[in-house]
Design a protein that fits this description.
The complex is a heteropentamer, with one copy of chain A (254 residues), two copies of chain B (193 residues) and two copies of chain C (224 residues).
Chain A lengths: L2 H8 L2 H33 L13 H28 L2 H35 L10 H22 L3 H33 L14 H33 L4 H9 L3
Helix pairs in contact in A: 2-7, 3-4, 3-6, 3-7, 4-5, 4-6, 4-7, 5-6
Chain B lengths: L3 E12 L2 E12 L3 E5 L6 H9 L6 E6 L2 E4 L11 H12 L5 H7 L15 H9 L1 H4 L4 E5 L7 H16 L3 E5 L10 E4 L5
Parallel strand pairs in B: 3-7, 3-8, 5-6, 6-7
Antiparallel strand pairs in B: 1-2, 1-4
Chain C lengths: L1 H18 L7 H15 L4 H25 L3 H6 L1 H8 L4 H29 L7 H26 L5 H28 L5 H30 L2
The chains are: A mainly alpha (254), B alpha/beta (193), C mainly alpha (224).
The complex binds protoporphyrin IX containing FE, adenosine-5'-triphosphate (2 copies) and magnesium ion (MG) (2 copies).
């Protein structure tokens, strides 16, 4: 299959629906297995951190969610570009599918981050649940970007228009994310050298970082599975009038 | 094909779950005038917007040459004078014209320098109509062009339409008031409710 | 041709803003009133004000700009001229750029020119004022350009204002940060080249992509 | 009768604001976004933020309120319902009062209720939060009432927004000063009774005279 | 005096230096209908606003009973539904009525709960017209009540006016379209330009 025909087929919801079925299973199973092993290992069996005790175990949730939240936004920006330039329907569906996942991951990263931070920050004399440092700030901005995409889609009644509007926004956001991240990192670390000393990853033994790696890979698989399953549902919904969907429904193995 | 100004194939549009029109086949050639009539809310404006490219939520195909669209909204900035509005419109369409002459033809001589906010309803419509004399698009899409106009104004509009048809243009017009021009086709939307 | 289109649209905007009643508190006035309120409320204590001055000025510039963007396309949308613009202008991004340029003249440029006054009200040392102006003149075009994308996306919507803020403010954050930190560093005698280059880079990127995106967004908004 | 009229108008306002696209950045959101900007721009330094927190909060409340007042009568003016209101309502000040009350619910009241959160973001000690809330709940009604007079006078005019600010802000200054100083004194352990009484007095006076003035001003604005 | 719904003495109005009307003596009794005609910008709307008490910049005297004014502006809030708008209007006038019946009479049955923004131009006008059925003022001041209405809508308006006249009300109406009711007096403003 040449690249060109592949590109065209990618634009066809029907082809994509049939092709994606095995991939959905692969991603789904991988995600399940990896996340389960990583989490159980990390939370239950990995050795305790000398300095932070058990609270450090949040890292096994915190770091993967934080990473995937950022990647998901980049993915949306790319999808937006594809939608606007090549008007590919599938890209719109990706755009719609990623928003809730990315938003919840961002929230999770923020919550685990603050949960984790609280004892640390107290130890440093700041009795608060919130600190304006580089990671919190850039994560908060990311949350607002996600929130904007979500709100924009809700606000536009016509689906097709909503898709393109979100694409425009996602593109601007994608270009800005590195800039935001850089600026915030640089500015707030300049001011706050003290409170994030602990965020620098310590040199860990393998039993400590291996579960982390498992979780990171697992969560990316989860992203894949999530996007695929939402895409497939979305395809069925949008193409419900067409012949092939009706046949599929009759045959009973959608 | 080159002779047809507007062609639609199987045009169909739904709004709020109500089907406004379906299987619409329109073919409008040079010098032809199509009038759409129908009760309020039957979808005349929607049809015009579909055709103008301002409402993409339809099924079917539309093929149209460069067109001028005059909708329910005035399409002029009320903070500017008539002159300034038309000057901007010239720039937009890339057509040069004699603005004062145009304004005189639509009966607005003497009001060129009045901010449009301070004009009467009919006078504002006239400023909007002056665009017909500037843009040289061969297809006109008019949504109730007679609104708020006095008798002279209505005569003016029908005169403009006749001239345009005579020079090989096409007109697609929605209206509730009878139009005193040679109507080639009539399209009726929506049953009596 | 494109130049003439730009000029006509630009001129129209200037006239229209000059006569408008909807400029949602013209940005300059907004900034000065708010600054006076800050000065009044702190009891005019020079020390406190001085430490906070760069932040106050830059945040107010952001807010003023955002408020004036809200009305950028609203009138055109409501009176139907936006439809004409989307249908007829060729190339479509030229009048869009002209609109943004005009908006910038009344917000970013005007605020830059009067920023020294604002700085003096807040007891900013005069050695810092040039840096203040440089960061403003480099950063505000990006504010207008990025903000216009948000304004174009929300013009036809209910709850446009609220949405606009949510869409636009995250994008403004880097500009705010580079702007404020440049002034702070200048105050501490540290070089500010890095921030200046970043502001220039952001503005350059915005100027290349924003007009096209705004045009696309306007089309979407008109097609309701 | 008058009560029913009040209630109908009040209800209409709530529904209309809930669906509106012109709430000029709904005041609550405006306040929170602006506060986050301040926090970000200062580099999140708790000490600095804390000293400035009362000022920031009160100034933002003022600005948010004024921005939302700008749209209070604009839509009604443009769609002609203001004409109906002026011609038909009996007694005329009742729906006016209802409109102001509704606006206050969405600005003053909402901001008062969420002021503790704002205070926490800016690291205001929690012992001061009650004072913050008391001054806000006493002061904001006067902001809405006095501001409405300005809004009514300027609704039909070009350059309404600018005029509104110039008319209204001087009236706001005493409220701002009493509000901020009460919080500051509380922080220093000094009694704040005087400020509280003053705020109450200003609000009482406003509530008696403002509705009548607003009604008169609306008549003038409609008769163009 | 008590029998006259509207009396003007030596009414005179100038705008932008143009005299719109002068020495106008109007006397309208119960059951009478006065129609104002004239070209665009001749001052019809201005006259109606003078009489309604919405434009005080005139010379002379106006005496009028409680009146209902329906102008060029719709007078409805587009963010509310038809029902909500009329409900508000009821509260304002202190009249109770059956809103759904009223809406049905103006042909808006089935659209009660649609936000007015999403109605067509004519449907919005109809919601505005529904006020005629709610307010029980004896004098109606109507500025181009037929705008944007289809034939059925125009019939509706003329029907309403006739009924109102028959029950002893008075109507003062500016219009460009012929009105199919028994017109008692006609007032022509502005010479042909
Ligand atoms: C609300 C608070 C927090 C947020 C939003 C946050 C956000 C993030 C983000 C975005 C990353 C991923 C960086 C990457 O992509 O590589 C991350 C990683 C990490 N965070 Fe947090 N964080 C927070 C609080 C904390 C705290 C309090 C600690 C430690 C006490 C912490 C420790 C770490 C560590 C060790 C990593 C992984 C190492 C690294 O990649 O640098 N975080 N956090
Ligand atoms: N902005 C909108 N959003 C959603 N629905 C709309 C909108 N505008 C109109 N509609 C619906 O579409 C239908 C057709 O409206 P349209 O404006 O096309 O009618 P029309 O034939 O032009 O009527 P009129 O003679 O009153 O101008 C109406 O029933 C209306 O409910
Ligand atoms: N808001 C205004 N401010 C100043 N002058 C105005 C205003 N509105 C109208 N005029 C002027 O008053 C004159 C009469 O306007 P008016 O609206 O009464 O005319 P009209 O007879 O109702 O016209 P139409 O048939 O177009 O509705 C016009 O010549 C116009 O220039
Ligand atoms: Mg229509
Ligand atoms: Mg008139």
């Amino acid at each position: 299959m040449t690249l060109k025909t592949f590109w065209h087929q990618l634009g066809s919801p029907r082809w994509f629906y049939q092709m994606s079925k095995p991939w959905l299973y692969v991603f789904g199973c991988l995600a399940f297995v990896l996340l389960l092993t990583g989490t159980v290992w990390g939370l239950g069996f990995a050795p305790m951190d000398g300095k932070q005790g058990n609270s450090f175990r949040i890292i096994y949730v915190h770091v993967p969610t934080a990473m995937v939240a950022q990647s998901a936004y980049i993915l949306m920006g790319v999808a937006g570009l594809v939608l606007l330039v090549w008007r590919m329907k599938l890209a719109d569906m990706v755009l719609a599918a990623v928003v809730p996942f990315g938003m919840s991951m961002t929230v999770l990263a923020l919550v685990t981050g603050t949960l984790w931070g609280k004892p640390t920050w107290i130890a440093e004399g700041d009795d608060t649940w919130w600190v304006w440092d580089a990671r919190t700030a850039s994560m908060l901005v990311l949350l607002f970007l996600y929130f904007g995409l979500y709100a924009l889609r809700q606000a536009i009644p016509r689906q097709e228009a909503a898709g393109r509007a979100c694409a425009v926004l996602a593109i601007v956001g994608m270009i800005n994310i590195p800039i935001i991240k850089y600026s915030v990192d640089w500015w707030l670390t300049l001011h706050q050298t003290s409170s994030i000393s602990l965020t620098q990853a310590p040199t860990m033994p393998a039993e400590m970082w291996l579960p982390l790696v498992l979780n990171i890979v697992g969560i990316y698989c989860l992203l894949g599975a999530n996007v695929l399953s939402r895409l497939r549902l979305e395809i069925l919904r949008r193409e419900q009038g067409t012949q092939w969907v009706r046949e599929l429904a009759l045959s009973g193995n959608a | 094909m080159s002779d047809s100004l507007l062609t639609t194939v199987d045009l169909r549009c739904e709004r709020d779950g109500r089907t406004l029109f379906a299987d619409l086949q329109i073919k409008l050639g040079r010098g032809e005038c199509l009038v759409v009539v129908g009760p309020n809310g039957s979808g005349k404006s929607t049809l015009l917007r579909c055709v103008a490219g301002l409402f993409p939520d339809y099924e079917g195909a539309v093929e149209i040459t460069r067109a001028l669209y005059l909708g329910h909204k005035l399409g002029i900035n009320l903070l500017l004078t008539a002159r300034e509005n038309l000057h901007w419109y010239e720039g937009l369409t890339g057509q040069a014209s004699l603005v004062s002459e145009v304004l005189e033809r639509v009966g607005m001589a003497g009001y060129e320098h009045v901010v449009c906010q301070r004009l009467s309803a009919g006078q504002q419509r006239r400023v909007g109509l002056a665009r017909l004399l500037i843009c040289n698009a061969s297809m006109w899409l008019l949504d109730e062009p007679l609104t708020a106009l006095d008798e002279a104004g209505q005569g003016l509009v029908t005169g403009l339409i006749s001239d345009h048809l005579a020079t090989g243009g096409g007109v697609f017009c929605a209206t509730h008031q009878p139009l005193a021009v040679a109507v080639t086709q009539t399209l009726e939307l929506g049953g009596r409710q | 041709m494109a130049l003439r289109l730009f000029w006509i649209q630009f001129h129209r905007e200037l006239v229209s803003v000059a006569r408008s009643k909807e400029e949602a508190l013209n940005p300059l006035l907004f900034m000065f009133l708010a600054i006076s309120l800050f000065a009044l409320a702190t009891g005019g204590d020079p020390k406190t004000l001085q430490t906070f001055a760069p932040t106050i000025i830059w945040v107010l510039v952001l807010l003023a700009n955002m408020l004036s963007l809200e009305g950028l396309f609203r009138r055109d949308y409501e009176d139907g001229t936006l439809e004409q613009l989307v249908l007829l202008a060729e190339p479509g991004f030229v009048p869009v750029l002209a609109k943004i340029a005009a908006q910038w003249c009344f917000s970013g440029l005007a605020m830059t020119l009067l920023a020294p006054v604002a700085g003096l009200i807040l007891f900013l040392p005069s050695t810092i004022l040039p840096t203040l102006m440089i960061t403003l003149i480099l950063g505000t075009p990006a504010l207008s350009l990025l903000g216009a994308v948000g304004a174009a996306l929300t013009v036809g919507l209910r709850r446009g204002g609220v949405l606009l803020a949510i869409l636009v403010l995250p994008l403004y954050v880097p500009i705010l940060i580079f702007g404020v930190s440049a002034i702070m560093q200048q105050g501490n005698g540290i070089t500010t080249d890095a921030q200046i280059y970043w502001l220039m880079a952001i503005t350059m990127i915005s100027i290349t992509i924003a007009p096209l995106l705004v045009h696309a967004a306007l089309r979407i908004s008109v097609e309701q």
